[in-house]
Amino acid sequence: MTKSSTKVTALDVAKRAGVSQPTVSRVFSRGSMVRKSVREKVEAAARDLGYMPNTLARSLITGKSRTIGVVVAYLNNPFYPEALEKLSASLNAKNYHISIFFAANLDDEVDPVIEKLLAQQVDGMILASVSISNKLSQRLNEVGIPFVLFNRGQLGDNIASVTAANYSGGRKAAEFLVAAGHSRIAHISGWQKSLNGQQRQAGFTDYLNQQGMEAFACIDGEFSREKAAQVTRDLFAGDKKPDAIFVGNDHMAFAVLETLKTELRLNVPNDVSLIGYDDVQMASWKTFDLTTLRQPANRMVEATTSMLLNMIEDPATLRQKIEIESELIVRGSARIPDNWPKSEK
Amino acid sequence: MTKSSTKVTALDVAKRAGVSQPTVSRVFSRGSMVRKSVREKVEAAARDLGYMPNTLARSLITGKSRTIGVVVAYLNNPFYPEALEKLSASLNAKNYHISIFFAANLDDEVDPVIEKLLAQQVDGMILASVSISNKLSQRLNEVGIPFVLFNRGQLGDNIASVTAANYSGGRKAAEFLVAAGHSRIAHISGWQKSLNGQQRQAGFTDYLNQQGMEAFACIDGEFSREKAAQVTRDLFAGDKKPDAIFVGNDHMAFAVLETLKTELRLNVPNDVSLIGYDDVQMASWKTFDLTTLRQPANRMVEATTSMLLNMIEDPATLRQKIEIESELIVRGSARIPDNWPKSEK
DNA sequence: CTGAAAGCGCTTACAG
DNA sequence: CTGAAAGCGCTTACAG
């Protein structure tokens, strides 16, 4: 292999192979027909020079960067690293790559990031757990850059999203806890300014109400460990104490469990049953052994990338709000109702 | 704001503002002098049209993409999500953005990713916990794309890296455990094919040897939870059992702690003292309360990005191997020697 | 199948 | 300070 200390272009390869520059281009852009002998000559020359097409130039001319902008709220919650890896794998398999940004869930952090992504000419965007301002979503529609919200629903006609079936997940949590005989069931909810948090809570309380019951309490944990721990303390500060807690996600549930065991010296599940939401990998650690509703990251990712790529290929593609059913994963942190059907671990 | 369903270019703005296209360019590329009245006219026109310079075209011509390729081995170990967020923040602050890829630590996964990054015309690369083949590192040097290894050293003259001072960290772990009176100290090491793993072990055993002691055992945990748990079981299977364990990173240490408590029913630190390495956020959770050596992610990230950007600006920049001292963070998982100086939590 | 020509949307000397 | 011109490294009709 010949050393090349400076950038080698298609023209260099063309000269070395004795062909025109467009022919080199044809060899490297799939679908073009080049005579086999010519192709081999070009490939040999390219190999010798260490040539590789400049994707910047290619993107400029094709109008497709094959880049997907991914915006993630925070990686604190272990659901996101897991999802991010899977998103990357799925997109790479489809020959796209990721430009990533982190942004807290505030318009004034998210909007500038989206502008940057726009300047980078991304072909589409995935917004994980961040919401988008109306202004921006309109803007994206105008310039024709499709986007899908991942794990965060948002009202609005033209907004595609992929989430768990949060309402029905909330119901399932309540159903399980009621079936186990609990009567003082508290809910430390997901952030009530997010649809995820609202819907999980709505499903939970609706089921309870339909059984003629009321929630012991519903308090916003704001998807924060600290807040969830504080709410837990408050919940047990009075005379009347809950006998079960449904927590809006696993990330908070770990903090609740810790507070219950380490601070309040309670036994889980004997004193209190605990249910989370997500089924992140840590939930299955023996340390936590958390009963939870699984958000199937694989399927959510697959739904997200395929919808997004469809939107990119065909702008007329419907902006769906896809909900993926959550399965209850029964582990040791919550009392198991008699006759409850066995589930895998 | 005028709606624009199609892409708006500098030329459109120029026409609307009644100036030439290069003048528009000058307004948007910093440093160029434009009369104030003209600048304002152009900015107004740009705002009306929703114009934003196409960074692809800009990069093509300047030869700088302001993109840093980041390759991460896996996000399993919570150190990486934490570091990744910080890397992103640091790079964004310097007006760079990230193109991210995940690759297992194998040449045949890493090399193709680096090729892709090369085609994308990244200005530099950060390789987090992946090693690079000699072929590729030579190649990168030839094409003049600087890179720095993050949290993974590698021998070789022209290879820049930022790591913890792993050897001295290993020594500190041994020193602390010896001072606490332990005499049967085992080491579940980091992956012995990584310099991190080797050096932490070397520091540990060297200190012991200098005290006239020997390690109870040194077994490779391979940075894997499963492997670490299995090694823990093996360690306690015989008649002679360790009274302390130094684990090659926190990620494994959590699995060791779990096995110790949940499976082997041992009390930590009364039966066994445990020390990890990294000080990821979880280490401070009461659930784990892990004594550990802190890898200061902030400082490592800062060292990484500033060295990389220096290399980008001035190719003559020395390829340093920067080591950042690890501080021992004393928590509850290991017996505390008498008279040990108090440290912050 | 292949070459000559045009052009993607910018930046950057070069004149004025 | 500003415009006309050239050019970054490709792809894509258009002829042949």
Describe the structure.
- Chains A, B: Residues 8-62 form the HTH lacI-type domain.
- Chains A, B: Keywords: DNA-binding, Transcription, Transcription regulation.
- Chains A, B: InterPro entries: HTH_LacI, LacI/GalR-like_sensor, Lambda_DNA-bd_dom_sf, Peripla_BP_I.
- Chains A, B: It comes from Ahrensia kielensis.
- The structure is a homodimer of 345-residue chains.
- Chain A is of the alpha/beta class and 345 residues long.
- Chain A folds into three domains: 10-53, lambda repressor-like DNA-binding domains (434 Repressor (Amino-terminal Domain)); 65-165 and 297-324, Rossmann fold (3-Layer(aba) Sandwich); 166-296, Rossmann fold (3-Layer(aba) Sandwich), CATH 3.40.50.2300.
- Chain A contains twelve helices and twelve strands.
- In chain A, helix 7 (134-143) links the parallel strand 3 and strand 4.
- The model of chain A is unreliable at 1-5 (pLDDT under 50).
- At the A-B interface, helix 4, helix 5, strand 2, helix 6 and helix 7 of A face helix 4, helix 5, strand 2, helix 6 and helix 7 of B.
- Strand 2 of chain A pairs antiparallel with strand 2 of chain B.
- The structure holds a DNA duplex (16 and 16 nucleotides).
